[in-house]
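U., I forgot to send this yesterday:
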Amino acid sequence: MGILRVLGIIILVLLLISLIRIGGTAEYGEAGILVRARLGFIRFTVYPRKKKVKKKPAKEKKPEREQSAPGETPPSKPGGLFSTVKEFLPLVADAAGQFKRKIRVDRLCLDFTAAAPDPAAAAMAFGGANAALGMIWPIFENNFNIQDRRIRTEVDFNRREPVIYVFASFSLTIGQAVVLGIRLCARFLKVLSHLKTRQKKQKEAV
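Result:
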């Protein structure tokens, strides 16, 4: 009975821990993917992992970049290639299907910039961008509990490819985070490896 009681207590503690809600942010832009987690006052970067570098002589400290306060809309940043985002959409859909409306998105910011060489192409690109967002947005709205949102579209005549900037502030339980990590981590790394290989080949071709 002693062993069963201990096991029961351990299971109960793990269950209670799994129900604790944690927060985080996910961001995609010109600098790439950035995922951070928050547990109370503890904040840490989930991805990308920091690489160990040799210590260099101390330099004069530069003023730190201002960070958005909780609940505040983050400033717009340069977007990353839209073709990269499309590679990760199946993972987002999988997460949505796994925990329908259980993952709370406190703020979602999406800036889409269409590429167009002339006014006629600009009108088509802008219309196409809004039509695409009109089809994609209901997927987020129906599957995630979104509290606040900001969506903007524009056209850049100097770009060759459309770009997108996405920022999401979300919260979920530790149990949900563990399940998502087990379910999506391998697929995420596989897609990321594929993208890096493709980008490397493109650079070598140039």
